[in-house]
Design a protein that fits this description.
The complex is a heterodimer of chains A (159) and B (290).
Chain A (H helix, E strand, L loop, with lengths): L18 H9 L1 H4 L3 E8 L12 E7 L5 E6 L8 E6 L4 E2 L5 E2 L16 E9 L5 E7 L8 E8 L6
Chain B lengths: L1 E14 L4 E7 L6 E9 L6 E3 L15 E4 L3 E4 L3 E9 L4 E6 L7 E14 L13 E15 L2 E10 L5 E10 L12 H5 L6 E6 L11 E2 H5 E2 L17 E11 L4 E9 L11 E14 L1
Antiparallel strand pairs in B: 1-9, 2-8, 3-7, 3-9, 4-8, 5-6, 10-18, 11-17, 12-16, 12-18, 13-14, 13-17, 15-16
Chain lengths: 159, 290
Amino acid sequence: MSVSSLSLFGVWRDYWGMWSALVEPNIAPLDAAGCYYPRLILLPEVSQQTVPASGKVEYNFRLPAGSILWGMFAPKPSVDWTVQLTDVTLGHQFFQEPINVSQLFTNGPQVGEMPAVTLFATPHPVVGDGLFTFEAWAEPASTVLMMIGSAEVSDCPVK
Amino acid sequence: MVERHHDYSLTIPVVPPGGMFDVPLQLDTDAPFALRLVRSRNLGISGFRFQTPTKNWQSSQLRTDLFQILGRGVFPSRGLPVYPQMVYPIGSQIVCDIGNGTGENLTNVKLLFRGSKLFQDGSIPGPTYPPSFAPLTFAYQTVVKQVPVVGTLFDNQLHIINDADFAMRCAVADAWGLLVDGAPGSINSILFQQFSEVYVTLRDESRKAYSNEPIHINDLFGTTTPFSTGNGGNDDQVLYTPGLFTPEIYIPRDHSLYFDIVRNDNPADPSVNMPVDLWFRFHGSKVFKQ
C-alpha cells in the first residue's frame, strides 16, 4: 500500500476512523509521480470572497488539462455556508445538492481548524477545457473561501 | 467472499451500580462476523470488556474507549480499533462485562461492535465494480423532514440515479439548514433544531439490515459540528468525523439504499422537543462503466 507525505500530518491516524486517512492510499502514488507538482487553488479569488447582497458567489476557473485534483481545504466558518463545485467539461457536479461547508472539513491540528484537508473519494482528472465553476451561498457581506488541492501536470521530470 | 458492513449493538437499559457481568450479545446465523471496532455509549469511564471468539477476555480488566488530550480533558473516540480482526463463528455470542463505578444506575448503555459479515460467494447479492470503469467523486443527499420527537419513519430512500453505480464510503447526517439565494441561514436559525435519541437502521434493496438494531445516528453518520446535536454529553462530541463504511457499500445504478429512523427524545425536554429535518449526505464515488 502506498503512503503519501500527507500521512505525516500530526493528527493523522488511519485507525481513528478518519475519512482522509482512509482514502489517502488512493492518491498516494501521486507523491512519487514525476509529472506533477503541488498547487493549491484558492476559491474564489480574493476580490470575490465577500458575498454580495444577492447572497451568492459564482466563480469560474480553469485548470490545466491533465492535472489531478485530490482534495479540498474548507476552513471552519463562523456562519455556515453552502457550496457547489462543478466540472463543466465533464458536466459533473461534485454534490447532488449544494452542501454545507461544515460537512466538508475534517480534523486539523486544532479540531476543525486549518489545515484540514478533506480528500476526494476519487482523484479527479482535469480534462478538456479544464473549466470549473465554484458556487457559494452565504449571508451577504460574509466571506467565503476554500482551496482545492491539485497535482498540476508539468513537463516531466520535475525532480 | 462477499464482505458486508455490519453493526452489532448490545443495549443494556439499566446497568446497576457495580456493573453487570457475562452479558451475551447473540450474533446472527447467516454469516460469520469479523469484528474491527468497539465503541461504547452512555458508559463513560465505567468501562467494559468483551470475550474473543476463543472465549478469552480481550482485556484483563475493564477498559474504556476514551482518549485523553493533555490539559484539555477526556474525550470519546471513534471507538477501539480491533486489529487484527476477530472472526466470530455463525450464531456465536460476544460475552461482555459492563462496569458501573458511579454509584447510580447507568441507563441506555450501548456497546457497538462494528465490522463485516463474511458471506460465501453467491450466498448473497454482492454487486461490485465492472471490469472497466471510471470513478468520479460524488455526494448524494436525502432529506427527511419533520422527524417527530417520538416515532419511527420507515423506508427513507437513497436512490442512485441511473448514470452510474455508487460506491458509498462515508456519510454524514444532521439537522442542517440550507442557505439559498435571498434566504440565508445562520447559527441561530439552525441551532433550534436539536435532537439526541435518534437511531438509524440501514437496509439494502431487499430490506436486509446492516445492523441488528437501530444504531445511534452519531455512531453511524459521525458528528459534524460546529452545530453539535443533542444533549448526550461527551458521547456526542466526536467532531468533524463522518461515519465510515468499511467495506464500502456498493449500490448499482437505479437501485436504492433504504433507512429507517427511530427517534425517542423526551417531549418534556425543551432542548429536543421539536420535530427536526434531518439532512443525510452520502459520500463516495460514482462508478461509470466503460
